[in-house]
Write a sequence for this structure.
């Protein structure tokens, strides 16, 4: 159980690193008259991700979930792959990446890196992580609850992001 708590703590630390990058990128974007959207759903998204990080070890501890190597090792591989994909997205978007929906008007859509394959590859990483992290130690309730709630949040988030990208790409009125 200790090693699992350390794994979850490492993912939480990675989230902290993301927030540092996001704050730096937000300053860069705002200096370029960025459009900020979706502040209404952002607290729910944050709460959901904190819930995932708290729920994983809590479920293992309270429900006595066993470590099942045949499940754990493939899920750990998925988790590592999700982190790699997330940081590929962050690296590809550079200063445009953020945890919030912030779009700089006039910049073209990114169509390289993982974005040449998918419109929203970072959300693939989020979904994969939300399933894999709990299942590394058979916290299946946390995986199921996070997945259902995350589907609702991502539906709102992706719609918001698509609208912000479209608005930023629209020509200015004459």
């Amino acid at each position: 159980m200790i090693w699992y708590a350390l794994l979850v703590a490492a993912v939480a630390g990675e989230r902290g690193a993301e927030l540092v990058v996001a704050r730096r990128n937000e300053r860069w974007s705002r200096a370029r008259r960025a459009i900020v959207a979706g502040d209404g759903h952002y607290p729910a998204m944050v709460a959901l991700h904190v819930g995932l990080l708290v729920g994983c070890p809590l479920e293992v501890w309270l429900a006595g979930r066993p470590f099942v190597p045949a499940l754990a090792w493939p899920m750990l591989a998925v988790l590592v792959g999700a982190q790699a994909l997330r940081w590929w997205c962050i690296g590809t978007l550079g200063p445009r990446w953020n945890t919030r929906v912030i779009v700089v008007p006039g910049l073209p859509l990114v169509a390289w890196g993982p974005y040449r394959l998918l419109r929203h590859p970072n959300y693939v990483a989020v979904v994969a992580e939300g399933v894999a992290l709990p299942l590394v130690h058979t916290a299946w309730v946390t995986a199921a609850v996070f997945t259902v709630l995350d589907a609702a949040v991502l539906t709102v988030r992706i719609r918001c992001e698509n609208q912000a990208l479209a608005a930023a790409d629209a020509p200015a009125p004459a």
Q: What stands out?
A: The first helix runs from residue 2 to 30. The chain has five helices and two strands. The mean pLDDT is 95.
